[in-house]
Amino acid sequence: MSHPRPHAFPTRLMQALLACSLLLGNAAQAAEKLAHVTILATGGTIAGSGATSTTTVGYTAATVGVDRLIQAVPELAKVAQVKGEQVFQIASENMSNEHWLTLAKRVNTLLAQPDVDGIVITHGTDTLEETAYFLDLVVKSRKPVVVVGAMRPGTALSADGPINLYNAVLLAASQEAIGKGVLVALNDQIHAARDVTKTNTSTLDSFKTPELGMLGYIQGNKPYFYHLSARQHTVDTEFDISQLNILPQVDIVYGYANMGPAALNAVVAAGAKGVIHAGVGDGSLASKVVPALSAARKQGVLIVRASRVGQGIVARNGEANDDELDFVAADTLNPQKARILLMLALTRTTDSKEIQRIFYRY
Predict the structure, then answer these.
(1) Which residues are tagged catalytic?
(2) Mean pLDDT, rounded, of the chain
(3) Which residues lie closer than 8 Å to 174 by C-beta, 6 or more apart?
């Protein structure tokens, strides 16, 4: 009659425990190699909810907190070590200058920490492009910052928020995104903050860079870059908001047929330090508005000629004599982004020639 060898069971148990220990150790090492990404949540549709699964318009934005957003995408744990922080909980049409300053300062504080490798900001799509461009000008780090949103609330059929968030974290954790400025990631595409814009009220492919082109794609769990922005951004800008608690008032006046000076005069009377004139065509100025614009400039208000068209260069001294009027041309920036750059420029100088240089640089 045979008997088991002494200590065989304890030996097998020890081998099993050792194997488990090695597996756990390997898993811990693998997790430690993942980038550390902080998700800063601000609200918006990506955190919204609707009455039914087919509610894709008329939903309520900013109802879901950052912890639930992260829990809804467990696959995030495979691409990064993720932490969440609720900075605001608002619909993005309510985004203000004060919100921007608070957010940017928090981003800079986090990126200065060695245990933060990248940041994702969840945001409503209505003003997403503006927040992204503001951050592109004031973030002082080469580490990735990715702004992401959704066109459908999380309760909708085929909600785009979860995959957009996954792609944004993947991008923020990647080596490829380092030093490329603030990025916008939606619909499997990567865009530069300066040039991207929302082009449709509700479709999933709303965010585009129409003429200058998106930077790349996210496919198969990997970002692919094909273009880079040629304009200065992040660590290479001259803007410092660390001590700023308020931004100069800059307003936008929209051009149209039969336009008069009423709107312009109103914003100047309300204390505007700068005005973006979103003119027709190549930033053209209606003859009835030119005297009011000229008078505002003589009062010290900076005037920037932009275009409502949305694409193309606004030519200096093209549809107006900018040299004679002492105006600034917006280059390719749309009116809402020209407003952001003018606000920051006014924290540095009130000289129109210097501000024109700034518009050509950024």
Answers:
(1) 45
(2) 94
(3) 35, 144, 222, 223
